[in-house]
Design brief:
The structure is a homodimer. By secondary structure, chain A is of the alpha/beta class. Chain A is built from 15 helices and nine strands. The first copy, chain A, is 50% helix and 13% strand. Chain A is globular and about 60 Å long. At the A-B interface, helix 9, helix 11, helix 13 and helix 14 of A face helix 9, helix 11, helix 13 and helix 14 of B.
Chain lengths: 325, 325
Amino acid sequence: MRQAGRYLPEYRKVRAGAGSFLELCYNPAAAAEITLQPVTRFALDAAIVFSDILVIPDALGQDVSFREGEGPVLRPVRSEVEIARLRTDGLRDRLQPVYETLRRVRTELAENVALIGFAGAPWTVATYMIEGGTSREFAEAKAWAFRAPESFQHLISLLEEAIGDHLLAQVEAGAEALQIFDSWAGMLPDVAFERWCVEPIRRIASRLAAEAPAIPLIVFPRLAGTRYGAFAEMHGVAAISLDQTVPCRWAAEQLQPHLAVQGNLDPVFLLEGGEAMQAAATHILDALGKGPFVFNLGHGVMQATPPDHVAALCDIVSAWRPHRA
Amino acid sequence: MRQAGRYLPEYRKVRAGAGSFLELCYNPAAAAEITLQPVTRFALDAAIVFSDILVIPDALGQDVSFREGEGPVLRPVRSEVEIARLRTDGLRDRLQPVYETLRRVRTELAENVALIGFAGAPWTVATYMIEGGTSREFAEAKAWAFRAPESFQHLISLLEEAIGDHLLAQVEAGAEALQIFDSWAGMLPDVAFERWCVEPIRRIASRLAAEAPAIPLIVFPRLAGTRYGAFAEMHGVAAISLDQTVPCRWAAEQLQPHLAVQGNLDPVFLLEGGEAMQAAATHILDALGKGPFVFNLGHGVMQATPPDHVAALCDIVSAWRPHRA
């Protein structure tokens, strides 16, 4: 999660020389270099391809841009007519630069470092497409889903297929694990969560299990609270990524018996470093380190994070050993 | 939760004639009129006093203002020295207009309509005081709490006392139930939740149980996910308010055996109205209506909500009857 990003001076240097943020995502030489930056600098077990969840709406022909300090801006899709205008064919051709990035990274990467491909989940991608960017209340996306679930399902189904295609193409290009980010899963109310978060991910996971059975899938239904449990026994899901609000003890009891868990240090601890970071990381390792577990943050690295803190965190995680019983 | 507010034309009329938002909160005649507006228009069981959680920092002498369309703006408190400058004496005098509002409302209100007083929880009020307004990441508040928990505890302890005083003064002025809003409880990571959300509320609840034992206390640890359970058996807490992400079935099993629950319709359903609202409200009533329960929203009424939808929702709730077993 923003493993490569603005907190790294070497990233800022490549970024400054490139054009727009999307041009950077579609520039395989630069994107491969950026992907490799954190694994070159830190003792990490995996690299995640440098890309963005909004390459999907961009490849579907929606107008997407990134404004400095503002986040993404999309021309909103708010009707069946606008859904019908999206270009669903040729998606793979338009996303070739992402796959080329993966191929380049895989040839450069040490054999014992895994390469992760990713995509946004249908609900989360749909929120950006409908709201036209990030949102506080997600009122447009939710209102559409509540008012006209049939037409909303058209958009979700279209995204399920596009996202599944995109993930499988990343596997062909060298991805050895996949992650689906449902960053705004937590915004769905009780009655809508099953239909718009769980079911679309279930269908994608099932397709991946059939077409790429050797590739582990990690699902991140961010801020899902008690509803993380919905993914514990889902076919095709190897691991679940936890945001920082999930109590480790709860995850150890409710989730870890069923699948691997990944997470969940608050990025503010990484920003601060020092003893507080050490204590918080150790709490997570002690609670989850004995089961199937991948240490990670609960959300992306913050821009002001000193790279030294990331190095210190890698040391803490590598040095940790379970207490003897 | 914004039971009275900008979605009501009669509110906008009073608002337009008043000065700043805080001046309105401190104008007992206008605030009492606004408090009564929703109970006059709709068949509601309770009125909540028109006020704001930021009257506490204002009364503590922090510079607080509300800018149209921007939300609150505070001159941030970010050091021990700035905490020491807060005026903790005479708080009750400075908040007299709020108590006068309650007294006026209580004399006007029908006997069978309850009057609710409220305050923000220490953590939530502290985030506004430190961030200087609303925030996406709460990095300043969290960083302080993580880096220097002892000095952060000074601010929290000061707020615990001020909030407890304010709630008790509201009871003296006629409040028949109290609610504590911990709107940003969900932003606290696992290891910090107990100390900065649960413990301060436990101490306030314990004081209220001793000093105002007849007054039910409702706690709203918004977006706490699995951690709602921490309040299920807390001394002095009569009810827990649920945001819209809490599955009703989970709440019926885990929380309702211990205390009353309140919630949790997504405000976007109220904005939309119609069949979707009817179905979602009925789902909540069917799941929670047989135990101790107060129907409510999961978050505040949205500004664009048609008042007719609120009336329709009151009808749905009044007409609901449990299915026979």
